[in-house]
Amino acid sequence: MGIVVQKYGGSSLADADAIKRVARRIVEVKKAGHDVVVAVSAMGDTTDELLDLAAGVSPLPPAREMDMLLTAGERISMALVAMAISDLGYTARSFTGSQAGVITDAVHGKAKIIDVTPGRIRDAIGEGHVVIVAGFQGVSADTKEITTLGRGGTDTTAVALAAALEADVCEIYTDVDGVFTADPRIVPAARKLDRVSYEEMLELAACGAKILHLRCVEYGRRYGIPIHVRSSFSQLTGTWVVDDPTEGGTMEQAIIAGVAHDRSEAKITVVGVPDKVGEAARIFEALAEAQINLDMIVQNISAAATSLTDISFTLPRTDGQTAMTALARIQGEVGYEKLLYDDKIGKISLIGAGMRSHPGITAKFFASLAAAGVNIEMISTSEIRISVVVDEKDVDEAVKATHTAFDLDAEEIEAVVYGGTGR
Fold it and tell me: Which of 84, 111, 196, 318 could form an S-S bond across to 147 if both were Cys, CB 3.0 to 4.6 Å?
């Protein structure tokens, strides 16, 4: 039997009873003959509580100390899970991210994994132990400081461990039964997907589907690790994220995998940019220097009378103030007129690898939004995705209308949200 890597989120570890249930699940896999490595998140809302505590102490806490504080949540979880496994008659060894060999860059708060050296994990497996690893954290290769990977970092930890250990599968346990065609909180008739491709899951994750994080899926695709998304509250088979979702299944992939939405973005418009070579480059260089990731970008055709143009883009809402500050610094250099900021937007995305061979998808998508009275502010596309920005108040209606228009509604309610967070 090979190695199985599992990940349990905060809702699966919400209290002592939940931790005992998780321990029993881990022991079942061990009894079946597998070696088990588990990445755990902080219990319940622990991370949010720690953030609130920090905010009460300091309005601008140092990034290094924030990482030291936030990693405590996962350390609590790993020790408690190891204790619960011990009570079931099996030995477990818990490790922090640094002890487990998770090596990152030096960016506090959103570090990236650059290597995993799982020597201590392999030794513990060889001695017959179940290994519990604190997710969401690592140690910087350069500074030797403790780092955190950002929200959802435990997903990435789990898949990175699976890749380093050449595991058979990485099981991501959450509080829903798998990946659905839309958020069940908005569309109760959403259908569970049995299998989905890495590329579709990448687009779903990038467009706001919170069930898996983007970096986690990227890691899985890069190293060919099958990811099984399932609920820790049921024994149902979940959703397999694999290279070829048609293997062993249907002859042809479904046209549409799902509808994703994102309420976490904001829009900035740089008004009156001189239409000269290099001006747009300077704007985006300033944003890159501020470590800001952009999503959609639209530049209008310049007005003939003024030779000025407007550039609009979307970005994470949490980076809005940083971006506005960075752009304000270069106003004299670039010579734009003003900045407009809008954080009352939402993004709706239609995703499916079958789009490549089916014309008319875009027309049908836009027609469904028009019929629902939803106005489109921005449009972005890829080979397997169409995304639009709409007013925040129209998000739910847009998701429902699109889901129904593409015949994604299930005949019976399939989705159960056990924990209430979707993580």
Answer: 111
Q: Give φ, ψ of 354 to 5 degrees.
A: -70, -10
Give percent helix, percent strand, percent coil of the chain, each to the nearest 5. 35, 25, 40
Task: Put the strands of the sheet holding 195-197 in their side by side order.
Answer: 92-95, 130-134, 35-40, 3-8, 169-174, 227-231, 239-242, 195-197
Q: Contact, 70 vs 148, CB < 8 A?
A: yes
Binding-site residues for ATP: 7-10, 174-175, 185
Helix, strand, or coil here: 27? helix
- In the prediction, which pLDDT does 423 show? 36
CA distance 261 to 395: 7
Helices (H) and strands (E) in the chain, counts: 12, 20
Whether 421 has a pLDDT exceeding 50, the answer reads no
Per the annotation, binding residues are 7-10, 47, 74, 174-175, 185
What homologous superfamily does CATH list for 3-175? Acetylglutamate kinase-like (3.40.1160.10)
CB 79 within 8 A of CB 94: yes
Q: pTM value? A: 0.86
3-state secondary structure 279-335: HHHHHHHHHHHCCCCCCCEEECCCCCCCCEEEEEEEEEHHHHHHHHHHHHHCHHHHC
| Binding region for substrate | 47, 74
User: Does residue 392 have a pLDDT over 90?
Assistant: yes
The separation between the first and the last C-alpha atoms of the chain, rounded to the nearest angstrom, is 29
Angle at 379 between CA 309 and CA 187, to 5 degrees: 150
* Residue pair 354/255 in contact by the 8 Å Cβ criterion: yes
Exposure on the CB side of residue 204, measured as CA atoms within 13 A: 25
Q: Where are the domains of the chain?
A: 3-175
Candidates 111, 108, 107; CA nearest to 63 is 108
Determine the average pLDDT of the residues in 296-308.
85
pLDDT of 327-349, one tens digit each?
999 999 999 999 999 999 999 99
Buried b (16+ CB within 10 A) or exposed e, 71-85: bebbbebbebbbebb
Residue 228 has phi, psi (to 5 degrees) of -110, 110
Q: Is the dihedral of CA 349, 214, 187, 249 positive or negative?
A: positive
* Mean pLDDT confidence for 294-302: 89
